[in-house]
Amino acid sequence: MEDDTLRYAPPEDVLRFAREKGWSTVRIVRTVSGALSHREALKVARDWAPLLGLSVTEFMQLRKNE
Fold first, then answer.
1. What span, in angstroms and rounded, lies between the C-alpha atoms of 60 and 33?
2. Distances (CA, A) of 36 to 16, 19, 51, 54
3. pLDDT tens-place string over residues 10-26
4. Model-level pTM?
5. Are 10 and 16 in contact (CB under 8 A)?
6. Do residues 65 and 28 touch, judged by C-beta distance below 8 A?
7. Are 63 and 55 within 8 A, CB to CB?
8. What is the reported pLDDT for 6?
9. DSSP code per residue over the chain
10. Distance, CA of 32 to CA of 64 (rounded, Å)
């Protein structure tokens, strides 16, 4: 799977793929929420954060490039 298509795949499949490839949580967060507006990223965070064992706030913090 390529990074662009991961955003549209079922979250469970993406997580399985990413973990098999050894991706960090930060990379997963940035892949599925990158280039999204803040509002769109919040929607993604609400779906993805529980699957990653994160709060929505933690998800949004990991999304930042600092």
1. 9
2. 23, 23, 19, 19
3. 899 989 999 999 999 99
4. 0.83
5. no
6. no
7. no
8. 66
9. --HHHHTTS-HHHHHHHHHHTT--HHHHHHHHHTT--HHHHHHHHHHHHHHHT--HHHHHHHHS--
10. 13
C-alpha 13/C-alpha 56 separation (Å) is: 20
Instruction: Dig out the tokens for 24 from the structure.
Output: 């960090």
Q: Taking a C-beta distance cutoff of 8 angstroms, is the pair 44, 8 a contact?
A: no
Q: Tell me if 15 sits within 8 A of 28, measured CB to CB.
A: yes
| CA–CA dist 4, 57 (Å, integer) | 24
Q: Taking a C-beta distance cutoff of 8 angstroms, is the pair 51, 15 a contact?
A: yes
CA distance 63 to 52: 13
